[in-house]
Amino acid sequence: MSLGSKTSLHDVLRGMSHVADLDDNQLDELAQSANLRHAAPGTQLLAIGSDDTRLLFLLQGTLELLAADGAVRVVHDTDRAAQDPISRLRPSRYQVTALTDVRYLLLEQQALERLAKPCATSSMLIEEIGVIEASPASNNADTDHPVLFDVFIDLHRDRIVVPSDPVVAIQIGRALQQLVDDPRRLASTLAICPALSLKVLRAAMATGRDANSIRSTRMAVKRLGTEQTLGLTVNCVLRESLRSNSAVVRDRLRDWWQRTMQIAAISRSLARVSERFDPEYAALIGLLHSIAEPVLLGYADQHEDLAQAKTLDDVLHASRQDLGRILLTYWGMPHEIVEAAHLCNDWKRDHPGEADYTDILLVAQWHAVAGDERHRQPPPSHEISAFDRLGVRQASPRLSQHIADTALEIGKRADELLSG
């Protein structure tokens, strides 16, 4: 039961950095989904595995977060971690219990994402890293590789770089300079590089409260304007392209780029099977689902064993799900993008209800890598339930041909770009 009046709720919301700049109407809308509560010491506020759609914000007092492996974290209202939701992931990875008298706020996650600016401070990072450390996969040496700690240190310091393939980035930078008067073609060309697309998307999301309404590179370019987009892109090309002495690392970045481009294009085609899906958003999810891979490749030269192709491939594959989820959550990406990254290796994924964007991603990945000996092979399509949910188990010859043509066209575009 809520213990706060409308006035007190507004006062509390006004004091939260994520929503302080909402106007009165938006604040009213957010307040409708809010509950201001008190709890006595020993009260359990959230259980491990909870799917509660509300996010918990600590206002006063001290909480204990107990992970499944017995690890304990204590959060005080004066901690920086209290500025963001407590145990944000769903299902919840923590049991949250009041250690003192506490005052806290529950807010519907969808309402917060729709109205507020993205939150990306250290509390989420602390929780996410704890989840990786406590994960069953942490028994796998590939997910414990020291390269991950390098990434986490820089993430704490807010200096993560998503490197581009230098040849691709330079060619795109040159092409974009000829398109400053053509926003649509500029956005289409920009989408050839997932790393540059991400940077423009993040910059566009930072410009306003309706950040999660930006669902394509085209919308991001429209929000920023072509001049600002071009300036940002040129700066990233100059400063954030991959510089590696390892032929293996360079080869893996090129392979990641080509594969990701194919997956994005096939995702766009598959999204057209139903009017429920936005093809441009599906393509964006395809572009960003494996963004952890170039991040890891940017650190590979610091670890001698990652010059070996098999070791590098194992680390990339084992780490991309959890690290991708961490990075995309930290950057305030919409939950469909975060979920797709988190489940991109989960070929056995099953869920009730209709198909979703993650199903599209899994089927697109299957088409992009099946039969290609350079990549880990997925299970046969009949073992992947996403095919059934999308209704493409027995795809029409027309759809199958369109998917094949899409992959071929992407390959041609990539070759044309790299040849200048």
What features would you describe in this structure?
- This protein is of the alpha+beta class.
- It has 2 domains: 113 residues, Jelly Rolls, CATH 2.60.120; 276 residues, Orthogonal Bundle (Hypothetical protein af1432).
- Helices cover 51% and strands 9% of the residues.
- The protein is built from 18 helices and 7 strands.
- The longest helix is centred in the middle third of the chain and has 25 residues.
The CATH homologous superfamily of the largest domain: Hypothetical protein af1432
| CATH architecture identity of the largest domain | Orthogonal Bundle
* Main β-sheet description: 4 strands, antiparallel
Tell me the series of helices and strands, N- to C-terminal: HHEEEEEEEHHHHHHHHHHHHHHHH
In CATH, what is the class of the largest domain? Mainly Alpha
How does the overall form come out from the CA principal axes?
A: globular
Distance between the termini: 64 Å
Give the overall average pLDDT.
83
Number of strands: 7
As for the CATH topology of the largest domain, it is Hypothetical protein af1432
User: How are the strands of the biggest sheet laid out side by side?
Assistant: 2-6-4-5
Helical/strand content category: alpha+beta
- Helical proportion, percent range: 40-55%
